[in-house]
Structure formats: C-alpha cells, structure tokens
Amino acid sequence: xxxxxxxxxxxxxxxxxxxxxxxxxxxxxxxxxxxxxxxxxxxxxxxxxxxxxxxxxxxxxxxxxxxxxxxxxxxxxxxxxxxxxxxxxxxxxxxxxxxxxxxxxxxxxxxxxxxxxxxxxxxxxxxxxxxxxxxxxxxxxxxxxxxxxxxxxxxxxxxxxxxxxxxxxxxxxxxxxxxxxxxxxxxxxxxxxxxxxxxxxxxxxxxxxxxxxxxxxxxxxxxxxxxxxxxxxxxxxxxxxxxxxxxxxxxxxxxxxxxxxxxxxxxxxxxxxxxxxxxxxxxxxxxxxxxxxxxxxxxxxxxxxxxxxxxxxxxxx
Length: 317
Fold this sequence. Notes:
Layout: E1 12-16, H1 17-21, H2 33-39, H3 48-80, E2 89-95, H4 101-112, E3 121-125, H5 133-138, H6 153-164, E4 170-176, E5 181-190, E6 195-199, E7 225-230, H7 233-248, H8 267-290, E8 299-303, E9 309-315
Parallel strand pairs: 2-6, 2-7, 3-6, 7-8
Antiparallel strand pairs: 1-9, 4-5, 8-9
C-alpha cells in the first residue's frame, strides 16, 4: 500500500479513505443499519459505508493497542511481583463544535463493546464538567462556555485519576443540552471499565506550564490513545448553522429549552443568529484553544463537506 507522508519531519502517516479502508482486513461488521442510524447525531451523515471504511479499521487498530497495553501490564506485574488490577484503557475524542465528536465516540463505543472478549466500554463527555451556569454568570464566563476556563478542571482531573487508579465506582456529572446546564445531583457511574472514551472540545488542551517545576497534570496525560476530528473552518460554520436551523424547529420548541427564544425566528433571522454565535464564540474557541491541539492527537480524521472522512493521519510509533 502506498503511504503518503507530509514531509520528512511529519510524525504522521497519511492514508486516503480508500487506503485506510483496506486496513479493515477481516474485521466483522457487528452493527446493523438501524443501530448506525440511532448512533449518529443531528446532521451527521454516518452510514454503513462510513462505519465499514473508517471505523472498522480504527476498531481493529484499537483492539491491537489495547491488547498490547494489557500484555505490557502483565509483564510489569511479573517484573514487580505484584497483583495490581489492570487500569482502564482511555481514549480521548477531540474537535470543534459541530464536527461530529459525539457520533464518533458512540460508534467507537458500540464497535469496541462487540469485540469477541466483550470488553466493558464506558463513554463520558466533558460537558458534565462544565461549571454550572450560575457560576459562569457570576464569573462573567457565559460567553466563553466551552472555553478551557469554563470547566471544573480539578474535578475532571480527579475523575480521570480515580478511573486510572481503578477506584470503583467513580461518578461523573451529567449535562443536559435541553436546559444548557449541569443537572444537579445526577451522576453517571463508571465502574472499572476495560475501555473509557472521553469526548470533549478541549480534552487535548495543555495550558501553561508552571515555572517552579511542580507537577501539573493535563487531561490528555490520562489518555492511552486520542482522536481529533478535523474539518475546514468554512465547512464547520456551515454545519453549525444547519444544525441550529434544525434545532430551531425541534428541540428549541420545547418550553424547557434554554434556547426556546430562538424557536420563533425566521430562517433568515435564525441563520444570522447562528452565524453570529459561531463567529463570536465557537470560531474563537476553535482557533485559540481547539485547533492548536490537533497535532497532539494519535489519529486525525479529516472530514469533507459531505461529513465523510477523506483522509486519516496516524501518528508513527
């Protein structure tokens, strides 16, 4: 197979869609059409071909990585003479608003849970670790919701540390997109899974390093593998506006929706409002905080305007 490399210094091997699809080999298709339909998010064009060409090869690769990590764990046990439980294999999924992170995370969870050894696969989104709206309003951060400073980072780091340490169960807060806020006193329990998928905008963010040499953990320090979903800025803008227009006639119509006020907008007004939100908030977050982390990912899935993955960049070992 021909493998294209950006240049002699690139840490990635670049595969076309067709090249990547051949790496599926004999990995069986374990999802039915109705399951694929349920897994995709609003406006995502996920279909059987996308699962077969992109996600089955990725599932096969991850199965090899997880198996290798488990062998290394057993080797370390023998070396140390201890009986520590194996730690969960954590996969991070990052990328812009509207790029399809939720769909990718759910598809990976479904495929990985169907491996022959039936691993326990959990999925957590970092939305639950956003600071409550009341706190964001007090601190003047409502217009920066989704930016790194809008998250309860210490709580997220404690959660990941506890998961990696094998503590059970570990609780993650739940976020409601309807009310646009963290749900008080509701939790998702993560009980020592074999694999944990963590999906969020800024999960590959590093932040500033301390000058005094003290230890400072990043979310990505807990990842064993990471995926970045990529698309051109103009494409992302179009997807965001299309999604907003669809939500205006669906979820926004619910009187309980935080965005109910937008349900009465005309097409022109809704498109203008969505474009304003994208430009003043999401685009800034993308350029300042999300896109700069792309090169930290182990795998980059580059999407075209049709939502289909066109190229795959895999970091060399």
